[in-house]
Every structure is written in structure tokens, then in C-alpha cells.
Amino acid sequence: MKTKTSAVACAVLLLAAAGHAHADEAQSLEALRQTTLGLIQALVQQGFLTQEKADQLVRQAEQKGAAPEVATAKTEKAPIRVPYVPEIVKKQISDQLREEVIAQAKAERWADANAIPEWVDRIKVEGDIRVGLQSDTYGSSNGASATYLAANGQNINEMTDERNRLRMRARLGINAKVTQDLFAALRLTTGSAADALSTSQTLGASGVKSSFALDRAFMRYHDDEGLPWLNVTAGRMPTPWFGTDLVWNENLTLDGIQVQMDPAAKTDQVWRPFVGTGLFALQDIETSTSNQAKSKWLVGLQGGVEWIPDNNKRAKIGLGYYDFQHVSGERNSYNLTTTNNTAPGFRQKGNTLFDIANDGGATSLYALASDYQLVNLTAMLDVSLNDPVHLISTLDYVENIGYDHEKILQRTGLDVARQTTGYMLKFAVGMPSMLLRGDWQASLAYRYLEADAVLDSMTDNDFHLGGTNNKGYVLGMQYALGRNNWISARWLSSNEVSGPPLAVNVLQVYFNAKF
To answer: Which pTM was predicted?
Structure first.
């Protein structure tokens, strides 16, 4: 804005100076006058001035230029003196004006009619669409919903009859480079506002339009010149930790702030350590005499190292500690509801629950029995077999050290066995991503996740149709039909770890495209 204001001011001054020039200066100043008029017209075309305002400025300048150098006519107050502008001052003003306008024109690209505005280079739009079939089949020994509700308050729908459905997912993101050091991102996605994890929707809803909700909105500060090792992210962001969907669902977003430090960033070091910490709001609660629940938070810390000896192999290992605060339930006093909000706002199935309603059996409200403090170890090895074919091995292990048998007994009155371990081993061979026609990847994974190893509200929502207390394997295959479009297929077969029988098989076949 300063440049625009100075450009207008200088233009008016130059017109005035050109208007009362001496005869020996007339030729050069006439050229300057025409240039200045052209500048004012350019400012009008770019929207900096209206045509009416420009005409007014030109008239004012011409009126000033028509006055003599020294006016001797007197008014009631005092003589008016119109100063003479020396040649050297005119040249300085002209040079400054030209430099400022040329710099602004180059920066904002309005001097070239065919140029693209510079802000376009700072905005990137991306998205993806996935459409396909999901088939859910169940074991013959599965029970009715009442069986699981009676066993542990689990919200499990009837899982006895086969179900086939068409599924669709669409996501649209905008990434913006606000300044050299500040990045902002937004993403919209399909899915249900009541489901914190799924971004897919079942088709065939009697013509009802799909919802499109804000999934991500965050800013990231990164000073590439001064502090290249530091990233600070705030807002609703994707899970910032190095890990797998054993603990963190791939669609999970967290609300808070995270600081990531990579001391070896922008270097060629073989060993590249990293550390990150974050504070995230899980459920905001206004505590009062009638609502004694407390706000729920996640505090996380992860450190590790990445090993990159050459272009053919790399490895990465990370150890994290995640403390989920105030997430366990608290039983209400008799016929009161003051601790109702200690129940989770969203859950899938698997975690050990207890009924916190205390009204003589009139109602039921289930909350978490255990505390959750997770220690999570994740390791990955990527080896190029015959470029571009890679073998990628992943190991993920988690233990909930927040489990305390005595606290759970006191809190719930239940003798809850320790079920706090989870692990996953996965092998993938092929191209790391589907970019070009003919790219492919095959994968095999085995998962084992006990009931209270992680929060069931944050783990994968496809395996076992979501939640914890499951074990089994996943077979996957992808093949690229062209640039940025591919087909994918997965077979997920699982059984319960403990409790009543619950066998679930899921087949997913999708056509994917991204841009």
C-alpha cells in the first residue's frame, strides 16, 4: 500500500512540475508528463484508482502547473508562493517513482497483460476421489447385538448377515504459502459429522446429497533460512506422529499445537534425529457444580532417528509417549448426572467399559474403565530391490502403561484382566506410491490388538469394522492404470482376542484418482 500511495503522490507532483517547466526543459518534461499519465492510467486499470479520481488528479496537477513560479497576487490572508522544482529534484523523484513502480509491477505481474498474478503461485489445490464396493461377511458363531452389550456394553450392530454396499470418498484441499515462513492448509471431505474417523459415505441414500465438511484447518511456521530445523503447527491437523493405523487412524485429525524439531534438516547426514511434542484438545468441557467432568487432553512426545546411507535404502525408528488425560469414566452419585460427560463423546468398540449411570437401572451410560498412557515403538525399513521396486517392512508395538488394576476395581467394581498390548508387522513390495501407468504394490500385514491397548476411538476403522480387541491379517494389492489413477483391493480378516465370538471379513475394491 505504501508503494501504491507514493506512486500516486509522485505522479501528481511530476505532472505539476511538467506544467510550469522552462522552455529549454519542455521537450524532456513533455516525455515525462506522458509517462506519468501512462502510469496513472495503469493504476486505474489495476484497480488502485477510479477513473474519476484519476481525472481529478490530472486536473489538479494541470492547474498547479499553469500558475507562475512566484505569485505576487495577494489574498486577504497572505501571498501564495508556488515553489520552483529544481531539475535535480525532478530527476530524483522520477528515478524513485520508476524503481518503485517497476518493482511492484514485477512482483505483482500487472505490467504484463499475459502474466499470471503472483498469488496464484502461492496457492495449490489438490484432491482425490475414491469409488468402489465394500462387502462385509461374518462368522457363523457371531452373536446378536445383545450378547456384546451384556458382556461389556459394546455398541456392536448385528453382525450375522452379509452386507454389500457402494462406497465413495471425495476430498478437496487448499494449501497456501502466506509468507516465506508461514504455510496454511484447509481440507474438505465427505463423511459423517457424527463419525470422527470415516471419510467415506455409502451410496444409495434415496438421492440425499452427501455432506462435505471441514476436515483440516491449520497453519505451520517454518523459517527455511533462519530455523530450518523447526516446524510449529497449530489448528486442526493430521496426526503428526510417525506411526501406523494400529494406534492412529489415517483419517484422524487432532486439534491443538505441535512442535517438531529436526536438527539435521537440509543436510546430507546419514543419521537424522528428530523430536516432536504436542498438546491437543480432545473434548472441551465447562466444569461446574452440575457438570463435574473435566476437559479431556492429549499430551504427546516422540523422538527417534532416520538412517539414510544412500539412495537405495533408509530406515526410521520412533519411540512415543502419549498421555490421554481425564478420559476414564466416573460413576454418578445416585440419581444425579453430574459426571455424564466423563463418558467418551465418540467410540467404536473394544475398550473395557462400565455403566456410570446410577439410577437403579432405569438408564445406561457407558464410559472407559481404564486410564490410557501409551508407549509406542514404530520402526520402518525401506530397501530398493531393483529400482523402482522396493521392499518396505514396518513394525509397530504399543503398550498401555496407564492400566492400573486397583484403580479400575475401585472405579468400576469390576475385576478387569490386563489387556494392554498391541503389535503389527507389515511387508509391502512394489512401488512406494501409484504415480505412473504400470506401478504396482502388494502387501501383507498381521495385527494383534488387545481391548485396552489403545483408545478404540482413534485406531483403524476398517479392520474388524473398527476398534480394538481383534487379531488377524490384511492382504492388499494396488495397480496404476495411468498417471495418478489406480485400482486397489484389500481383504481384511479378523477375530476377537477375548470375549464372545466375533469374526469379521471385509473386502474392499476401489478405483482411485488424485489431482
So the answer is: 0.79
